[in-house]
Design a protein that fits this description.
alpha/beta
Length: about 280
């Protein structure tokens, strides 16, 4: 029975994705920016419903200009944040070339970065600063990769330079997934280690129902801090938001010493399945 339900959800999700593509191609050119943002958020909320994922939003999302920094658990995080509050993600350039997903991401306003190029990280930070000056809401995952959600990985600081340059605030956000029946932490949507995207998607569709929980913290300016110190303090705030929501608030051992710039824009969306790859040398 659960297999049949999952297959039905998969078909409905694919249909909804194709409908989103049609909207981008045929309707978006006739809409202004605010109307496109509303369509993206409505589409993301409907996709979560189609997949059987509930959504709980706590706190208040800030209006732009603002840079959102959030912990990273799953490929589902992007849909969840879009459903909670429209934002433009910074993602690895590979995503742009993915069939269907790349076109949807581009239509939603994603900025792309070459993960292995420090020069490209500087280019993207410049474009991010321009977008923030224009009043946009941007979002990054400063851990640079996914984890199982039990601990926070180090926060990389390089893309925070965009907020410093633009004089824009940063809003910490904590993401969690909880079993819909018990409220206990759910690992159903996790995408780590040897997980494949297809396997993680099927587990999400066929597993026990769960809710995505988004906790918005208070926006803040850098107030004279350098980006490394700011990254560490933002990480502590995300940990506090998780703890307030009943999630484990711990941080990976030695993380305070390692919360520094990565070599090439690792604070981006898109999952690199070995969490250690995002941690720079001590």
């Amino acid at each position: 029975m659960r297999v049949l339900l999952a297959f039905g959800r998969l078909v409905a999700a694919l249909w909804h994705a194709l409908a989103g593509l049609a909207t981008i191609v045929f309707i978006f050119p006739r809409l202004d920016a605010q109307q496109r943002q509303q369509r993206v958020q409505a589409w993301a909320r409907q996709m979560l419903r189609v997949m059987g994922v509930g959504l709980q939003v706590r706190g208040t999302a800030a209006a732009g200009p603002v840079l959102i920094v959030a912990n990273h658990i799953s490929w589902l995080d992007i849909l969840v944040l879009h459903a909670a509050h429209y934002c433009r993600f910074v993602s690895k350039s590979d995503v742009r070339r993915w069939p269907l997903v790349g076109r949807l991401a581009t239509g939603a306003g994603t900025l792309y970065i070459e993960r292995e190029s420090r020069r490209d990280a500087m280019r993207v930070a410049h474009h991010m600063a321009q977008a923030l000056r224009a009043g946009d809401v941007l979002a990054i995952f400063p851990e640079g990769t996914t984890s199982d959600g039990s601990q926070l990985l180090p926060f990389h600081a390089n893309l925070l330079q965009a907020a410093i340059t633009a004089g824009a605030p940063v809003q910490p956000v904590a993401l969690a997934f909880r079993d819909a029946a018990t409220g206990a932490p759910s690992r159903t949507a996790a995408y780590i280690g040897d997980d494949t995207l297809v396997g993680s998607l099927w587990r999400t569709l066929a597993g026990a129902p769960f809710d995505a929980v988004v906790c918005f913290g208070e926006p803040e300016h850098c107030a004279g801090r350098n980006r490394r110190a700011w990254a560490q303090q933002l990480r502590e705030q995300v940990a506090q938001l998780r703890a307030l929501d009943g999630e484990p608030g711990g941080m990976a051992d030695g993380a305070a010493e390692r919360a520094q710039d990565s070599a090439a824009g690792s604070a981006v969306g898109g999952s690199q399945r070995d969490p250690r790859a995002a941690v720079p040398p001590s």
